[in-house]
Amino acid sequence: MTRTILLWALVLAFGAFILDWLEYQYLVRVFSRDLYVACIATAFAAGGLWLGARLASRGAATPFEPNLAARRALGLTGQEMKVLEHIAAGRSNKEIARTLGLSPNTVKSHVARLFAKLEVGRRTQAVGKARDLHLIP
């Protein structure tokens, strides 16, 4: 980020130097305002194309791969993983129960076992630890 700021600062300083060198007051009288607008628009268009090409050339992010070793070590079941994903999505126990076709008490049991296995006391801690262990994206 610092490199980008310095680069643009140098570009702007160079532009100021060029304007001073060409005696800005003289150019204002000789050329119309439309020429300056066209020059600035061209510079911004070129900068936008350059920046777009740089951003587009970056590689795509690697797809998420769950840490199956951590899942096995913790002894998490498939249903507990589904509940954990729903917790990470911010759903309540009742919403999770409706979505998975379980009773709310069953969801509470899964959540309690998740807390015990992950050694946490809150939903946010469970999600944070699961993300740290690469159990969920």
Give keywords:
mainly alpha, Arc Repressor Mutant, subunit A, about 75% helix
Strand and helix layout:
Blueprint: H1 2-21, H2 24-30, H3 33-56, H4 68-74, H5 78-88, H6 93-100, H7 104-118, H8 123-132
Describe the structure.
This protein is mainly α. It folds into two domains: 2-56, no CATH class; 68-132, Arc Repressor Mutant, subunit A (Orthogonal Bundle). Helix content is 74%, strand content 0%. It has eight helices and no strands. Helix 7 packs across helix 8 (123-132). The radius of gyration is 29 Å and the shape is rod-shaped. It starts with a helix and ends in a 5-residue tail after the last helix.
How many distinct beta strands? 0
Given helix and strand content, the structural type is mainly alpha
Helix content: over 70%
Mean pLDDT across every amino acid position: 87
- Strand-and-helix sequence, N→C? HHHHHHHH
Shape designation = rod-shaped
Q: Output the CATH homologous superfamily of the largest domain.
A: Winged helix-like DNA-binding domain superfamily/Winged helix DNA-binding domain
What is the strand content?
Answer: under 5%
Short summary:
By secondary structure, this protein is mostly helical. It has helices at residues 2-21, 24-30, 33-56, 68-74, 78-88, 93-100, 104-118, 123-132.
